[in-house]
Design goal:
The chain is mainly alpha-helical. It is built from five helices and no strands. The chain has one domain.
């Protein structure tokens, strides 16, 4: 469940950078784990893999210029037609 830590930190970061989109980021988070039992998610969040992934991606995201990060966050909410 490395992807879980990876996506969670991205969604949390985007919620902070783009507060008007926070509800949409939470909704994306729910979609990503849809169908996964809460117990399994809770256990995954306690693993070293999850924590390492979360921390590692968070560190890398912090290096991205804020304006670029906000642009990327906003584009992740755009729907493609």
């Amino acid at each position: 469940m490395i992807y879980l830590g990876n996506w969670k930190v991205r969604l949390v970061s985007c919620s902070k950078l783009n507060p008007p989109g926070a509800a949409k980021y939470r909704e994306l988070g729910k979609i990503l784990v849809q169908g996964v039992p809460e117990k399994e998610l809770a256990e995954a969040r306690q693993t070293a893999e999850y924590k390492d992934s979360y921390e590692g991606i968070g560190t890398e995201l912090a290096k991205v210029p804020k304006d670029q990060a906000i642009k990327a966050c906003k584009s992740s909410l755009e729907t493609k037609k």
